[in-house]
Design brief:
This protein is of the alpha/beta class. The chain has helices at about 1-60, 65-90, 100-125, 135-165, 180-190, 225-235, 250-260, 300-310, 320-335, 345-360, 375-385, 400-405, 405-425, 445-465, 485-495, 510-525, 540-550, 605-620, 620-630, and strands spanning about 170-175, 200-205, 215, 220, 240, 265, 315, 340-345, 365-370, 390, 430-435, 470-475, 475-480, 500, 505, 510, 530-535, 540, 565, 585, 595.
Length: about 675
């Protein structure tokens, strides 16, 4: 008991000491603030007395000797009382001297005018014998306006003068002379810090009425069409795009001009991203990935998504990946009856389940930890849950890794797709969408070959069983895991260099929402056996893309950020294709989506070949696996020297597997 009492007493003393310290700190804070307020108030009162004295002395020559002294001695206390009342009414002494603004100027005018009128009336009534002329009160009113404004705005005036004379800092050109641009310009133009990183030298705006005018000493020199020329003319070192309301097409035109100028660029968020309506240099960011697509982004209307998946049980494989997780987000927002999240990566599944459970009632979200190559497990899941639609996004997709482990490309991407599709047919799943890639067209890598075989498998099963199972095929998904854009951005964040395989390499790009749009639309349009392709416009040159990303990160390529050429890796091509020469894609009712309806010549009998590949994998027979691949796709030859897509594909059968170099990874196929 004594020990407890001692401990309690010790704790009481400690808490009491803490309370005393907190009270002392609060008192010191209050005293410091009160000291500042008192100092400002005394200065304002002193300036009021000086102003009145100057006004009286200025008219002393028109009166008898000693008049000014009699007036001041009789009325100065009354003046101070009136001025103090005016200051207290607007609490002017509590206003910041460093950040004075227009409301402060209005408060000064109110306080001076009100107290001058009050003092005039009281002095005329109480001291009429002194015959104080009206000019004294008017002069005092004018002098005090100047003195109090000088006190409150003096710091800003000095800082503005220092900013105007500042020669250091990066020369920036601001695009957009609207509210956002003006707020940013004001912050920069009034920044007197000699170490400030930016110095505005010109503005550009498409409103011709602003051309030739200056704002905060910075001229508006022309419109965005001449941006490249104007940036060169004013020696701009960076372009700041401040048009939050710009449409995607307007932003694309501006960014194209930035590319032509070769000047690094940053941009403000869009209106939907600006929550509090204030804009500053802290809001400047590199352009979003969709800004780099050089075309309008296509998005799906929420009501259309609800029509496709609303009220249904939906299974998404590879739910933890970039495509799978975005697919789950859009499906969850459309209120399905149940959403099954399947992935074999425990960590990815945990986080996507956590996120989707915040969008959709957690009772309608079910995480499923499973590997698609486990046939019994897959069938058990489908028999238990009976999904209405399956979106198959699970796949190994890293070209370089799968060149080292081709057996895993076949095992995961081909066998997984076949097992899932066959189980779906056996359990009566009415609709399945298999997600493929443009690398399946004239494949030069094991990753592309595995996706081609998966396409053929789905196509054959769909036509044989008259099922609404279909493929969707698209190019690089900008921002997805492993995307070249994400790799470039990671390299930029680390300070470079940016590593480009080949300056001639081109790729098709689409955003993650566009990929999901294609997948969902295919689910609604497909009758069975089709391959849906997204029209992604013109392919983008990877080297130019690297330079553009460098510019949009605020860095001059070659000067601030080196670019290195590494050469094409195994399995990579110079160019990609969206369809083969024999395929005739036709437009669909959905904008930007094409469909190939002709059956692939290789699809009949593909299941027998895949079964043979499975037997080879079970026996760890690497040579047998290569022989199977040769028999199915004889024109396939793994790229070992930077082959350039379609142009490098052989027209006839290649030598057998014995003449092909067996990857080292195949020697340990069973252990992979």
């Amino acid at each position: 008991m004594n020990t407890w009492s001692a401990e309690y007493a010790s704790r009481t003393e400690t808490s009491a000491a803490g309370a005393v310290k907190a009270a002392a700190a609060g008192a010191w804070q209050w005293a410091t603030a009160a000291h500042r307020f008192l100092l400002v108030l005394l200065t304002e009162i002193f300036l009021a007395a000086v102003s009145y004295s100057l006004a009286v002395v200025a008219l002393a020559d028109t009166r008898e000797p000693g008049w000014s002294l009699r007036v001041l001695s009789a009325t100065i206390l009354l003046l101070i009382f009136c001025r103090f009342a005016g200051l207290a009414s607007v609490r002017l002494y509590r206003r910041s001297l460093h950040y004075a603004s227009i409301p402060d100027l209005i408060s000064i005018a109110k306080a001076v005018s009100f107290t001058t009128a009050l003092f005039w009336a009281l002095a005329a009534w109480e001291f009429h014998a002194l015959r104080i002329p009206a000019a004294v009160f008017l002069l005092d009113w004018a002098f005090l306006q100047i003195l109090w404004a000088g006190l409150h705005f003096g710091v800003r005036v000095v800082k503005a003068q220092q900013a105007a004379g500042r020669k250091s800092g990066k020369r920036v050109l601001i695009v957009g002379a609207g509210n956002a641009g003006m707020m940013l310009l004001k912050e920069m133009a009034l920044d007197s810090d000699p170490d400030s990183s930016c110095r505005p030298v010109a503005m550009v705006d498409d409103d011709s009425s602003k051309w030739g005018r200056s704002f905060f000493g910075v001229p508006v020199v022309g419109g965005t069409r001449d941006l490249a020329r104007l940036a060169a003319g004013c020696d701009a070192e960076e372009i700041l795009i401040c048009i939050p309301s710009a449409t995607p097409s307007q932003m694309r035109d501006i960014l194209d001009s930035c590319r032509l100028s070769g000047v690094p660029a940053r941009t403000l968020p869009t209106l939907s991203e600006i929550v509090d309506g204030r804009v500053s240099r802290r809001d400047l960011r590199p352009p979003h990935i969709h800004d780099l697509l050089q075309r309008d982004e296509i998005r799906m209307e929420p009501q259309e998504v609800r029509r496709i998946v609303g009220g249904k049980t939906v299974l998404v494989t590879g739910a933890g990946g970039s495509i799978g997780s975005e697919l789950c987000r859009q499906i969850a927002a459309a209120s399905p009856r149940k959403l099954l999240l399947l992935d074999k990566s425990e960590n990815s599944l945990f986080y996507v389940n956590l996120e989707i459970s915040e969008i959709l009632d957690s009772q309608r979200v079910q995480p499923v930890l499973a590997d698609l190559v486990c046939r019994d497990r897959v069938r058990e899941i489908l028999e238990t849950e009976r999904p209405d639609i399956i979106f198959h996004a699970a796949a190994h997709k890293h070209v370089g890794l799968l060149e080292l482990h081709p057996q895993e490309a076949i095992r995961n991407n081909v066998l997984g797709a076949r097992i899932l599709a066959e189980a779906a047919l056996q359990t009566g799943v009415p609709r399945l969408v298999n997600i493929s890639t443009d690398k399946a067209v004239y494949p030069r890598s094991y990753m592309g070959l595995s996706k081609k075989l998966a396409e053929l498998c789905i196509q054959d099963l769909a036509r044989t069983h008259r099922a609404a199972y279909m493929n969707v095929r698209f190019g690089n998904v900008a921002g997805s895991t492993g995307s070249v854009l994400r790799l470039f951005w990671d390299q930029i964040q680390k300070g470079g260099p940016i590593r480009v395989t080949d300056p001639r390499a081109t790729r098709y790009f689409m955003s993650v929402p566009e990929a999901v749009h294609l997948i969902l639309r295919a689910a609604s349009l497909g009758a069975g056996g089709e391959t849906f392709v997204f029209d992604m416009g013109e392919p983008l040159n990877i080297y130019e893309l690297a330079k553009t990303m460098s510019l949009f990160a605020g860095l001059k390529p070659g000067r601030d950020l080196p670019i290195e050429f590494t050469g094409l890796r195994d399995g990579e091509k110079i160019v990609e294709d969206l369809w083969e020469g024999w395929e005739r894609p036709q437009p669909t009712s959905a904008a930007g989506i094409l469909v190939v309806t002709e059956p692939h010549p290789l699809s009949p009998g593909i299941l027998g070949h895949i079964a043979a590949m499975e037997e080879c994998l079970l026996r760890d027979d690497q040579q047998g696996l290569l022989d199977c691949l040769d028999r199915v796709v004889p024109e396939f030859a793994p790229s070992r020297s930077g082959a350039s897509g379609r142009q490098s594909v052989s027209t006839g059968p290649l030598p057998g597997a014995s003449s092909r170099r067996v990857p080292a990874a195949l020697s340990s196929m069973g252990a992979a």
